[in-house]
Amino acid sequence: MPLEKISLLEAAWLDESRALVNGTMLGKLPAVARVDLATGVLTPVTQDLTEFRGVSLTADRQAAVTTHVDTRSAIWAGDAAGASMAETVAESPARPGSVSLDRTGGLAYSEVTANCSGIYARRPGERAPALIVDNASAPRAAHRAS
Questions:
Q1: Rounded distance, CA 125 to CA 104, Å?
Q2: What are phi and psi of 137, to 5 degrees?
Q3: I need a labelling partner for 87 at 20 to 30 A (CA). Which of 107, 121, 128, 143 fits?
Q4: Is this model's pTM higher than 0.70 or not?
Q5: How far is 65 from 63, CA to CA, in rounded Å?
Q6: What is the C-alpha separation between 61 and 127, in angstroms, rounded?
Q7: Which of 82, 81, 79 is nearest to 105 (CA)?
Q8: Which residues are CB-neighbours of 24 under 8 A, at least 6 positions away?
Q9: CA atoms within 13 A on the CB side of 117
Q10: Contact (CB, 8 A) for 33 and 21
Q11: Distance of CA 57 to CAs 62, 110, 126, Å?
Q12: Which of 58, 22, 27 is nearest to 42 (CA)?
């Protein structure tokens, strides 16, 4: 991947032509990658759905350190007064969020995927959601007046 496709947060020099970088690629969480400065090729070092912040090397450049940020969220539903709330989508590092209810009581929500964020839907009474669209965010349910 060309170097201009990453927003750099930090860099640690491996040698004159290579570095470990912490940055954000379009639509992705901050991660650590090795970059060849001559070609601009990025090779991912961290490869999961959580984010990594910072990068530093030991003086001999034989070891690196980064911070793994483990953010979790869940979706809760209840009455409009907030008096009766229950977890409807379990807490997870995929960070379910941006939720919308349809008129039947079904849920549409975003969640982290390998392609950034996907839209999931779950009908009333179903336990397992279905991935509707990958690489999207912020679902909105359409409501029609009866």
A1: 11
A2: -155, 170
A3: 143
A4: no
A5: 7
A6: 48
A7: 79
A8: 6, 7, 9, 30, 31
A9: 17
A10: yes
A11: 7, 35, 48
A12: 22
**What's at 11, amino acid-wise?**
A
Alpha carbon distance 94, 103 (integer Å) = 26
Residues belonging to the chain: 146
Output the DSSP codes for 66-125. Answer: EEEE---EEEEEE-TTSSSEEEEEEEETT--EEEEE-TTS-EEEEEEETTEEEEEEE-TT
Q: Which two tokens stand for residue 131?
A: 């991935």
Coil/strand/helix, residue 4:
helix
Q: Is 102 exposed, middle or buried (0-12, 13-18, 19+ CB in 10 A)?
A: middle
Rounded to an integer, what distance in angstroms lies between the CA atom of residue 146 and that of residue 144? 6
How far apart CA 101 and CA 87 sit, in angstroms, is: 15
Pick the most confident of 2-11, 59-68, 74-83, 106-115. Answer: 59-68
Terminal-to-terminal C-alpha distance of the chain = 51
